[in-house]
Amino acid sequence: MASEGTVALVTGAARGIGRGIALRLARDGAAVIVADLADHPDAEQTMAELRSAGADAVYVPTDVSRVAEARGLVNAGVEAFGRIDVLVNNAGVQRHAAFLDAEEDDYDLVLGVNLKGPFFLAQAFARHVRERGGGGRIVNISSVHEELPFPNFASYCASKGGLKMLTRDLAVELAPLDITVNNIAPGAIRTSINDSLLDDPAKLQALRDDIPAGRMGTPEEVAEAVSFAISPGAAYLTGSTITVDGGLMWNYREQ
């Protein structure tokens, strides 16, 4: 198993894509640090599934937009398992608002979770790797909207575009520490964030018409890309985005 004996920290792991990643890495043989907001109603379900899979796992409640909590998360993971080998920056939020109506609080929330969080978590992780030696892997869960405009979600697009450039910069800066840094950019994935879409047959069909593969993706398919990105076979892959979207990016038409 590619991740046998490693320790992986996954943010936003209480549900959706984050849960899928945590479970996949556990099946690959990794111990998993589950991070999500305090008292998240779905966190215990993730932990139960990890325990059922026989994984070593701990849950560390964290608001990644707060630098002290982000640094404390890395410290807690090291305390629990002695080391962290993989950081998956998956936690993310979005807020719907026309650009002319967007509020500062919504902007601060989106940029805080989606960009500030990964920045300072990567910093804390890299400092840990520098201290222990031996290299590591950072995978950022971005979005096709690091490239595609998404009207009424300007702050989200800005955060993901920033994450793409942060990935490229850190790939250069952290290479001397043998840390690779890559993005996974999902397209339309079947998670709870898309519940309203899934309940609207007309909108769902319009989306499917935009996806050459003819369907939405699954968290497990995103997790498959993460599993590859942290594998020994991907040791020469860094500064890149792996797009997991069924071809959506090249066939997208805003509805």
Task: Throw out a few tags for this protein.
single chain, 255 residues, alpha/beta, Rossmann fold, 7-stranded parallel β-sheet
Structure explained in plain terms:
This protein is α/β, with parallel strands linked by helices and 255 residues long. It has one domain (7-250): NAD(P)-binding Rossmann-like Domain (Rossmann fold). The protein has 8 helices and 7 strands. It has helices at 16-27, 43-52, 67-81, 104-132, 154-173, 195-198, 201-210, 219-229, and strands at residues 7-11, 31-36, 57-61, 86-89, 136-141, 179-186, 241-244. It has a 7-stranded parallel beta sheet, sandwiched between helices. Helix 4 (104-132) links the parallel strand 4 (86-89) and strand 5 (136-141).
Q: In CATH, what is the homologous superfamily?
A: NAD(P)-binding Rossmann-like Domain
The N- to C-terminal Cα distance equals 42 Å
How many strands, what sense, and barrel or not for the largest sheet? 7 strands, parallel
List segments where confidence is low: pLDDT < 50 over at least 5 consecutive residues: none
Mean pLDDT: 94
> Could you name the CATH class?
Alpha Beta
Strand content: 5-15%
Number of domains: 1
Radius of gyration: 17 Å
| Dominant shape | globular
Count the E strands: 7
CATH topology (fold) name? Rossmann fold
State the helix count: 8
The ordered string of helix (H) and strand (E) elements is EHEHEHEHEHEHHHE
Q: So what's the oligomer here?
A: single chain
Secondary-structure map:
Layout: E1 7-11, H1 16-27, E2 31-36, H2 43-52, E3 57-61, H3 67-81, E4 86-89, H4 104-132, E5 136-141, H5 154-173, E6 179-186, H6 195-198, H7 201-210, H8 219-229, E7 241-244
Parallel strand pairs: 1-2, 1-4, 2-3, 4-5, 5-6, 6-7
